[in-house]
Amino acid sequence: MKLGAFFFGGVEMTDAGAGAPNPMDRYYDNAACWNATLQYIDAAVAADKLGYDSFWTTEHHFQYEGYEVIPNGILVSAWIAARTERIRLGAMFNVVPQWNPLRLAEDFATMHNLSGGRGILGVGRGTVPREILHLNDQHISIGSHDNPDQAADDKKNREYFEESMEIIRTALANERFSFSGKYFQLPQPGIPDRGETVQQLTLVPRPIYPYEIWQAVTSPPTVEYVPTVDHGAVFWNQHPTFIKRMWDRYGELHEQYQHSALTPGAKRMLVVSVRIEDTHEEALRTARNGHDEFWKFLGPYGWSRGYMGDDGKPVQPGLIPSLEESMRQRTILVGSVEEVAAQVQELKDLLGVEYLTLFPHLVGDPYSKAVEQMDRFANEVMPLVS
Fold first, then answer.
1. What pTM does this model have?
2. What is the pLDDT of residues 305-364, one digit of tens each?
3. CA–CA dist 97, 61 (Å, integer)
4. Are 177 and 186 in contact (CB under 8 A)?
5. Which residues does 174 contact at the CB level (< 8 Å), separation at least 6?
6. Which phi and psi angles does 197 have, rounded to 5°?
7. 94 in Cβ contact with 73 (< 8 Å)
8. CA 265 to CA 73: how far, in whole Å?
């Protein structure tokens, strides 16, 4: 089983937890946010030394609250590549509607080539309206396929994302290209160039090494799309029953569209939060504040949609779960080495997991704690998993 590590890239918080302060009342200055970036990079170096296969950055903007302070994971990954030897470097995720697709393709190709072929192109559709509405000129926002009030935004976001990804894949793979769609005309008509008009474009540079594309999968419409274009699928923060349905559906569709059968875990990645301590009680104690701060921050964005209610259906968005509820939902693995190993084994047996990525840095924790968690998982938990 390959192991990855995924960090939000937040500021250490001594007052993380369920109570005050409200996330919007937090404010960290530039020095604190930059210090978190440097600690983040050091954690990636540690992951490389511990033998992890991959390290995953984020892309978030304007977050004075200190939760996610990395605006350009590709740029940071280029520096991480210079300080590491073998670890692969991706993003969870480059938010495609926040980019010009050609710039995203160029920046990824540059980082990928500089790293000696260690780049992974991770892509998603976005989470935070404050970010996406300030970083594109098409009024693309965040919606939800299952909320009638947001369905129009969701449809437009998906259209824009899918068109952008077609451009990115085409530009990365072809010597010359053009594209005509609903949102983009490439090249734009009538652009003069040395006595002629531009008819085609060439991306410089393009990858000189093979590369993979991985995409966040959190809803049925997305799992219907991802295998049609041969992206890998990343699953996180959902009840295993919901993941299993989409996990298997991905395999079925991949065989249909790509004409090749996959092993049960191929081209699919499971992301899990973890907290390992010597005893169950100590793991509960040290996990609680980071877990509760995570949900205080992200609950209003509808992240609880992946949790299962007593009726077997997704709970309504807006739930702020307790640590015990998240443990029951298997979105965080908490306990002793033996307990966490048993939970990993359960997920591996259910899904056939071949690629597991840890979220070891609970919100507000010291980075040293996250490095400790990566170490314990790789060297104590994994030897107990068959």
1. 0.96
2. 899 999 999 998 888 999 999 999 999 999 999 999 999 999 999 999 999 999 999 999
3. 13
4. yes
5. none
6. -110, 150
7. yes
8. 26
